[in-house]
Amino acid sequence: MTMPGYAIETRRLTKQFGRVLALNEVDLAIKTGEFAALMGASGSGKTTLMNILSCLDSPSSGDILLEGTAVGELDEEGRRLFRSRRIGLVFQQFHLIPYLNALENVMLAQYYHSVVDEPSARKALDDVGLSHRFDHLPGQLSGGEQQRVCIARALVNRPGLIFADEPTGNLDEQNEERVLDILRALHRDGRTIVMVTHNPALGAAAERIIRLNHGRIES
Amino acid sequence: MMLRMVLDSWRRAPGRCGMMVLTAFLAAVLLTALLTISVDIGDKMAREMKSYGANILVEPAEQAVLPELFANGQGALPAGEAVLDEAELINIMSIFWRNNIIGFAPILSGEVESATGRIPVIGTWFNKSLPLADEPDFRTGQLSVSPFWQITGVLPDDEQPEVLAGVELARQKGWKPGDTITLAGRDITVAGILNSGAGEDYAVVAPLKPVQEWLDRQGKVQAVHVSALTVPENELSRRAGDDPDSLDAESYDLWYCTAFVSTISHQLEEAVSGAVARPVWQIAASEGVIITKLQWLLLLATFAALLAAAMGMASLASGSVMERAGEIGLMKALGAGNTEVELLFHAEALPAALAGGALGSAAGWGLAQIISWRLFGAPAGFNWIVIPVIALLSLVVAALGVHLASGRISRLSPAEVLHGR
Questions:
Q1: For residue range A9-48, what is the model confidence (pLDDT) as tens digits?
Q2: Are the beta carbons of A147 and A166 closer than 8 angstroms?
Q3: How close A56 gets to chain B, by Cα (Å)?
Q4: What residues does A66 pair with on adjacent strands?
Q5: What is the DSSP string of B300-328?
Q6: pLDDT at position B37
Q7: Over pLDDT 90: what percentage of chain A?
Q8: CA B120, CA B169: separation in Å to the nearest integer?
Q9: Which of A83, B20, B143, B410 has a Cα at 20 to 30 A from A1?
Q10: Within 13 Å, how many C-alpha atoms sit on residue A68's CB side?
């Protein structure tokens, strides 16, 4: 089923919660290095699709290949390992640990990936323009800075796949632009990026828009 | 990184850590107090129950074949009756378990002539000075053996011509404290009226020496009442009580070095020649039963406290898991396994439990002292074993608490808490 040059492929991907069909036989292919935006109204299934693509959840049926690995066939432990090694996650709510400073929050991803490497963590923060905020706790950072810490944490292990869930949902215009710049730079760097958004302006920044409606891909 | 996370968690979220320390502290206070009292209660209760009277009767071997005649050390002394040597009684304080001997009192009984006819008389020690090599102030007698005696007046002096008149005899004769009566031709002062609820109520209880003279038994006694601190009987002591020679060497050593009533009786027989020592089972057995039951009751209470503490810790850990669901979800999303997350919770809880346990054991020991003073009028003994036991229990309680909450950690789905599926 694997098609050369594709980072993400799904066939008849279905997810059901009780009697609710969240994803209905979704066929999807995203090329390696592609910057795709998943868009759709609330309840269209975009978050469910992203949870499955990022190995945070498993499908009810169907196939899913990530960088050539059939992750749908992996058990929870296998998905956990795949996620820690190959996937970077950016969240709308940032999800930083409140009692760890910015540097330690980034190092946490290294800890659960393999070994802690403080210089790399510093560089990751430096890359997102936070070299002056290493020792600050999340509560001492602005929303934009917290999101950049979150991005640095997603990038520190150099994953091939980056999933961003409404990455600018909680940011002002200035910070939104800054985060988009970082995502564009990652795209230029050859990373595969899947971004969930309901914001058309943000979707326009991606090179491809995938629209979901009632659990099916519309376009 | 784990250490860094734990230290940061304590430093920057002190409330959470404080609650764990407090829970462990309260549990340790309760457990330490209960354990200290539990360990100490055997001695304390045994001492308390000495008010029931002597628990061992020492008498001549020949006399032991007819124990019913002399069970209370009373009754007329038949001619040629077997007796013990008073001079040997000091040997009682040289047995292996001498520190468990609360006291002892010899008995010599018979009848003497009074102004109104023959009356029963019992010779004994009231509170006699018996200097020992290492304890020159040692005193013993009925004061320590029969603390239940009710005396109107004062206790006679062992070296003076003073007696106690049994309450029934005094009523018949119309005697009262301070009266002078004539016994065997000698004027004697009634120092007090004795109410013991037993045979002494119908007799005159006098210092041993004049009674020996009146009965022409100088330096002799009929029996000795011994009050000793003992531990509850068990199968080994029962076997040894029947026949110590039936035990193998190891069992014999174990029995000999345990303060069973049968062990102390055996050692008393070795100390006083020609003597047979018999436990007064209605006293000794009931002491054992009560102490054993009390210890079980306290251990049960300790177990209940331990369970309550574990539940408290589990509830705290569960609350913490719910409160930190986002944090746990994030760790899992980043690649942490359930075991790694549980390990973090253990690493946070165990040192807190140890700290709370240490503070709690100190406070619990103080509480045990207060309880002990209130119940027994004496401090609880310090037992080193309580410290490692409490440290271990604190860790077990914390580990159990986190373990009980670990189900929530396992069930927590990162997709649910991070994205809201």
A1: 999 999 998 888 999 999 999 999 999 999 998 888 988 9
A2: no
A3: 5
A4: A8, A69
A5: HHHHHHHHHHHHHHHHHHHHHHHHTHHHH
A6: 82
A7: 51
A8: 9
A9: A83
A10: 4
Instruction: Indicate if the pLDDT at residue A1 is higher than 50.
Output: no
Residue B332: other Cβ atoms inside 10 A: 26
Return the H-helix or E-strand segment holding B390. helix B386-411
pLDDT above 60 (res A204):
yes
Q: Give how far B16 is from chain A: nearest CA, Å.
A: 12
Residues of chain B falling short of pLDDT 70: 46-53, 63-81, 282-288, 419-421
Chain A residue set in contact with B, beta carbons under 8 Å: 17, 47-48, 50-51, 56-57, 77, 80-81, 83-85, 89, 91, 93, 95, 97-101, 104, 107-113, 116, 137, 153, 165
What is the CA angle B83-B89-B94, rounded to 5? 145
Nearest-CA distance A109 → chain B (Å): 6
- Residue B250's contacts (CB-CB under 8 Å, 6 or more residues apart) are none
Percent of chain A clearing pLDDT 70 (strictly above) = 98
pTM of the model: 0.61
Cβ–Cβ < 8 Å for B229, B49: no
The whole-number pLDDT of residue B402 equals 86
Q: Which residue has the tokens 């390990």?
A: B343
Nearest to A197 by CA among A173, A161, A168: A168
- Cβ contacts (< 8 Å) between B337 and chain A: which residues? 77, 80
- The pLDDT value given to residue B71: 46
Q: Do A99 and B8 touch (CB under 8 A)?
A: yes
Closest by CA to B69, choosing from B60, A9, B411, is: B60
Identify residue B14 by its one-letter amino acid code.
P
**Whether the Cβ atoms of residue B149 and residue B142 lie closer than 8 Å to each other:** yes
Q: Which residues of A touch B413 (CB under 8 A)?
A: 56-57
